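Technical note accompanying the year-one report. For the benefit of new consortium partners, we illustrate the data format agreed upon in the data management plan: each record pairs a sequence with a structure-token string. No post-processing was applied to the example shown here.
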Amino acid sequence: MSPWHPVTSDAFSHLPWAVTRAEFLKTARDTGGDGACLVFVISEEIPPGARAGYAQLIIAYARANEPVTIDRDGISALLITEGGVKAGATVAERVFGLMRRISLETTIRAGVAALDGDPETAIVTARRRAELAGPSSTVLEG
């Protein structure tokens, strides 16, 4: 029997500082034109049972007062409230740098998209960009 147990959505809902997707979207809609969405995708090689730990690290490394929502598969979306796409890329690089200290930087990828008044589309776009990124890198276009 595998030592890994599938993560349920309950595991993610108990993470400190995580917000629900509805709360994330409401805050994103209230964010001015300088907002962006930064999405971190966890490598497929990471077992589902370990993904809550990755989400906790991303939350811990995020900027204060910027909400993070986590999908049931462990993908984390961080709301960048000021500085737009450029600030999102800077936050991603900081997270990669901190993950590098514990040799985990190659297990995540990031994508950033401007909110442009449509946070749902920004999440989808940022996720697609993250899925296209190489390990430990951020995609801002595409």
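Partners are asked to follow this layout when depositing records. Confidence is low (pLDDT under 50) at residues 1-14.
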